[in-house]
Specification:
It contains 13 helices and seven strands. It is α/β, with parallel strands linked by helices. The chain has a seven-stranded parallel sheet, sandwiched between helices. The structure holds guanosine-5'-triphosphate and magnesium ion (MG).
Length: 312
Amino acid sequence: MSSYTIEDVISGNLRAAARLMRDLDDRMPVAVERLKELYPHTGRALVVGVTGNPGSGKSTLVDALVTHYRKEDKRVGVVAVDPSSPFSGGAILGDRIRMQRHALDPNVFIRSLASRGHLGGLSRSTTDVVLVMDAMGHDLVFVETVGVGQAEVDIVDAAHLSVVVTVPGLGDEVQAIKAGILEIADVLVVNKADRQGANRTAQDLSMMLDLSTADRPRPPIVSTVAAAGKGISELAGELDNLASMGDEGQQRQRLLRRARRQLEDLLLEETGRRIKLSLGKELDQLVANIADRRLDPYSAMTAILDRFLRED
Ligand SMILES: Nc1nc2c(ncn2[C@@H]2O[C@H](COP(=O)(O)OP(=O)(O)OP(=O)(O)O)[C@@H](O)[C@H]2O)c(=O)[nH]1
Ligand SMILES: [Mg+2]
C-alpha cells in the first residue's frame, strides 16, 4: 500500500519522503515506480560527497556547512553512509552524526544508511535517497561516507563534488589518501587545524598534488576547525566556486559519468538478482559441486552466463 504521491514528495512532505525512502530501501516495486516518476523532477540539487577517515570530523564539518547554508536560506539534505555498521534503523547512527541541532529544522533532512552486507546495494540506496532529496527541492545534499577506500570512491561517484577530510599528524592517513582518494578530491580539507602539525599536513598534501599527474584541476586545500566553525565559509566558498565553475564540457562529463555509473550499477545488481532467481535450487547444487571440487567456479560461471547472456 502506498499512501503517498509524487506530488507529496515534490512539495517537500517529510513523511511521504521518509516513507518512500524506506520502501526504496526494501526494494519495493511500487517505490521504484514512484522513483521513475520523480526522475524528471531531479537534477537540480548540488550533491557534495564528504569522505575521510573515521573521526576526522566529517559530521561536525557537514553540520557546520548546514548551518552556513541555512543562513543563505538554502534547503539542505544530509545522507550519512556507514558501510561498516549493521543496519540499525538509524538510531545508533543518529547519535553518531552529531547533527541534532538541525533536527527540528524542516528545511534540513537527515538520513542515515547502513549496509546490510553488500556495497553495491549501499551505493544504490545512496543514489535513491539522493534522488528523493533532490526531488523534494533541496538545494544541496551532503553525502558523508567513512573511510578512504574504493567503496567510498564508488559511493562518492554519486556526487557532483567531493570533499576529502584529513587531520594533522597522521602520516599513514596521508599515504592512504595518496593511494587513491586524492584523485577524486575536488577540495581537500585539513580539519582539526587547532591541533599541532596542521600546516605541515597542508604542505604535505600540497606536495603530493605537485607530484600528481591526474588530469583534473588542482583541488584547493582548506584548513578548518569544524568544531568551532572556523574555515567553514572558506570551504563553502570553494564549493560554490566549483559548482558554478568548470566549462560546459567538464560539467557534461560529470553528468555523463554519474548517469553511466547509475545505469551500470543497476544493470549489475538486477542481472545478478534475476540470474540467481532463475537458477533457483540449481545454484545450491553448483555451489556444492564447487565445494567438493567436482566443478571449478570459473567453468560454472561461464556455463551459467552462456545460458543467459550472449557473448561476442
Ligand atoms: N579538536 C578538534 N576536534 C574536532 C574538530 N572537528 C571535530 N572534532 C571532534 O572530533 C570528533 C569526531 O568528530 P565527528 O564529526 O563525529 O567525526 P566523523 O568523521 O564524522 O566520525 P565518523 O562518522 O565516526 O567517522 C568529535 O569529538 C568532534 O567534536 C576540530 O576541528 N578540532
Ligand atoms: Mg560521522
